[in-house]
Amino acid sequence: MIRLYHYNKIFLRRALRWNSNLTINKKLNIGHLNLENNSEHWELVEDIARKDTIDRSKLLERYISNSDHNELDSDSFSRFDPKTLKGHTPRDSVHLNPDVAKVIQNNILSLQIPANIRRSASNYFVYLHKHSVHKPTSTKMEVDAHIAALFLHNYTSIYQALAELKKRIGTENFKPQRILEVGYGPAAGIIAFNDIMGPGYRPEKKDAVILGHLDMLRKAKLILSRQYNEIPNELLVPNTKIKYDEAVVEQETDNENLNELNNEPDVIQSSSESDDLIGEVMIKKIKIVTNLNSKIPASGSYDLIILTHQLLRDEERFPAQVDQLTTHYLSLLSPGGHLIIIERGNPTGFEIIERARQIMLRPENYPEEEGKIPRPWLRGSSVKSTTSSKYKDTELEFFEDFEVYDSKDLDKQISMSDLEESNNNICKDEIANETTNEATKDEVDYHIKVIAPCQHHSKSPLQIGNPKYYTTKEGKNLKIITFQKTVQRPKFTMELKKGKILATKWAMPLDGIGMDNIAQPGTGRPNGRNYENVNYSYLIIQRSLNDKETIKQINEDRENGRPSKSNEEDTWPRIIGPPMKSKGFVSLQVCTPLGKIEKWIIPKSYSKIAYHDARKAIKGDLWALGAKTKIPGIGGINVEKLEKAWKQELKLKKKEAKRKDYKISEMKQSFDDDSSIPDSSASTEDRITYLDNNIKKMAKVYEHEFYQANRKKDKKYKKSRPLI
After folding, report:
1. What average pLDDT does the structure give for the chain?
2. Is 695 within 8 Å of 448 (Cβ atoms)?
3. Closest Cα to residue 636, out of 595, 605, 694?
4. 101 phi and psi, to 5 degrees?
5. Residues 6 or more apart in contact with residue 138 via CB below 8 angstroms
6. Of 30-34, 200-204, 628-632, 705-709, which gets the smallest average pLDDT?
7. Which keywords belong to this entry (predicted)?
8. Is 128 helix (H, G, I), strand (E, B) or coil?
């Protein structure tokens, strides 16, 4: 609730008291809203002028009919330069569909004990800290914990990436007909896509591949059934109006005989206006449009592919697994299609994104090229007979990957970086030979362009090539590029954050419970926020059309060294850090179209409009207004120094593992030493102490032997299976 300004209240009260028919033409400022010469808005003001307070939500509903309104039509954006508005990243806070939030709260999480869900979510967060990559669910409890703890984050990052893609290529050009999503969760990509496109959009085909426990597919089916896009055409009521989040969608049919149905209601209310049903749902009878599967398709053609934490499942297989999975998913992309890759906002996620980008663009082969000229991808071209031959006739099965270090394997791990480097060189030589083949250059019909976030096709200035280098002492302060988005917490997320486990920060990353004297039982968050920030890395690429004119234009641009018809937005740098605001000037950290990190300073003397827009800019925006001062930023990273530090740490780990093996062997020998056994004259306390110590030693010995056996077993299993 907000209060009217004093002078406005007096004016309205007097006007209504002395002349009820008075026409008000002056401009009234209420909070942040400007109402001017709008009869509908003034009717609302006149109705509530006799009250001391007005309902802000009611006023906002009348003033803004759609949350995705055009920024150019809003008075609050009138001071921005049109180029600045064009470069803005979608900045509204993400709200999960209330119908989806309700079904998760009432029909999924309500069936479990909340403490069990929090404990399972805590265990998963501990696993993420140890391994840096996501894993599939293996039990029903893990499925529910994944939905409660991770679904909102995945939905937010995918929603923001889709909104960015839709804005950059234009709403009229973003109409994919065949969609594929691959992930561990309940089809968060399809849910976000449905919300972005609106309830009336119905593509030809939607496939969701969910890897992990079968119960996740059931829960995904239940959640998707709450979206209007997922109602099959044969179940739609003809000539009805479906109310869905204040948007009315009319369904038409050519069959006039069906219009005489008298038993069907004229308006089907959304679940928000009906009674909430709590409990288990018979999912088997539910029908949806999206095809749910647990296996990755071996072939096909899709206009939009969404990958959520799918390019790396085992840290020890970086970068070979990233290369092979990227190659396969590119083989499924149709001409003119788009591929969205979502990874975690940590060093591992950043390096996965950069490795996939390097494999697709191969910037080392085009050092002098400027602009975003689509790069050839010979592995996917129709002139290559070996395109994804590995996946032509067989479906890809999903394999769970787990890696445990063994002290005896540390000698081999020291040379792992050399193997990775040789693997990079092999791929590099292969692509270099392909791209320099003049005989097939004009016949290549597969070209790739990056839409976001990169504004260039050069080598990333922050890429170091190995996520493990960030764990060294020299690599802990290395910078990475990640993005953040604010999302409003639904009820089930706020319930998850209660209690001691997840309400507050942990003292150590592996504690799994809040800090003592800070975490409280009960509500657990007396001053808690109703929103949270999602940290993620992403990459959006586009496959160019493969008609002759497009291919000819790409080849001509490559010969000239720059694109002839460049999109204006491709020449603007992207802000990769929070703007630093000072009195009289603003500092922006940007990644330029030349592939360099620079610090741009925009003082008030440079331009009042640029100064105003810079103060309102956020991380992720494109900056089009230039700067008065441009300071070069981060230069080349000494990767050799990081590699040397990593090898040194591996040697220390080997010594520590050997020292532990030696202590365990000493404990075994102490069991056979009769001299330490107390005699009959010893007191009862001494005997109890001796037994306690022996039990602790035996526990350590058996634990060590158990892990050693599992390591050997897991090592043999990984050697006998393919990478994918």
Report:
1. 76
2. no
3. 595
4. -60, -35
5. 212, 213, 400
6. 30-34
7. Iron, Iron-sulfur, Metal-binding, Mitochondrion, Transit peptide
8. helix
Pairing of strands 302-308, 53-54: unpaired
Give the model's pLDDT for residue 509.
78
Compute the distance between CA of residue 231 and CA of residue 252 in angstroms, rounded to an integer: 15
Q: Does residue 143 have a pLDDT over 50?
A: yes
Render pLDDT for 87-132 as a digit per residue (tens, 0 to 9).
Answer: 999 988 999 999 999 999 999 999 999 989 999 999 999 999 888 8
pLDDT digits (tens, 9 = 90+) for 38-54: 444 445 445 544 444 44
Q: Cβ–Cβ contacts within 10 Å for residue 531, how many?
A: 12
**Angle between helix 151-169 and 140-149 (nearest 10):** 50
Do the Cβ atoms of 185 and 108 come closer than 8 Å? Answer: no
Can you state the percent helix, strand and coil of the chain, rounding each to 5?
Answer: 45, 15, 40
Peptide bond between residue 573 and the one before it cis (omega within 30 degrees of 0): no
**Which band of pLDDT confidence, cut at 50, 70 and 90, is reported for residue 63?**
very low
What is the DSSP code string of 185-248? SS-HHHHHHHHHH-TT---SEEEEEE-S-HHHHHHHHHHHTTSGGGS-GGGSPTT-EEEETTEE
**Which of 608, 605, 602 is CA-nearest to residue 630?**
602
- Global pTM reads 0.76
Nearest in space to 564 (alpha carbons), one of 548, 552, 546 = 552
| SS3 state at 535 | strand
Six-digit token string for 599: 């610090």
Output the 3-class SS for 20-70: CCCCCCCCEEECCEEECCCHHHHHHHHHHCCCCEECHHHHHHHHCCCCCCC
Handedness of CA 526, 514, 123, 212 (dihedral sign): positive
Strands 28-30 and 33-35: antiparallel
- Give the count of alpha carbons within 13 A of 593, CB side only: 19
Residue 319 preceded by cis peptide, ω within 30: yes
* Rounded-to-integer distance, Cα 486 and Cα 157, Å: 10
Taking only the tens place, the pLDDT of each residue in 569-611 is 888 999 999 999 999 999 999 999 988 999 999 999 999 999 9
Amino acid at 680: S
For 28, 371, 544, 545, the CA distances from 557, given in Å and listed in that order, are 55, 10, 14, 15
Which distant-in-sequence residues (6+ apart) come within 8 Å of 234 by Cβ? none
Q: 714 exposed, middle or buried (CB, 10 Å; 0-12, 13-18, 19+)?
A: middle
Q: How many angstroms separate the CA atoms of 332 and 388, rounded?
A: 10
**H/E run at residue 641:** helix 639-671
β pairing state of 2-3 and 205-210 = unpaired
Distance CA 305, CA 325 (A): 13
CB burial of residue 584 (10 Å; 0-12, 13-18, 19+):
exposed
Q: Which of 609, 595, 405, 625 is nearest to 481 (CA)?
A: 595
Residue 430: per-residue pLDDT:
46
Least confident among 71-75, 181-185, 187-191, 674-678: 71-75
| Closest by CA position to 299, among listed 253, 275, 330 | 330
Cα–Cα distance, 104 to 192 (Å, whole number): 15
- pLDDT-derived band of residue 289, with 50, 70 and 90 as boundaries? very high
Rounded to 5°, the CA angle 18-22-23 comes to: 160
Q: Identify which of 321, 297, 298 has the alpha carbon closest to the alpha carbon of residue 310.
A: 321
Residues 6+ apart with CB under 8 A from 31: 2, 56
Structural contact between residues 103 and 109, judged by C-beta atoms closer than 8 angstroms: no
Q: What's the pLDDT score for residue 67?
A: 40
d(CA 258, CA 264): 10
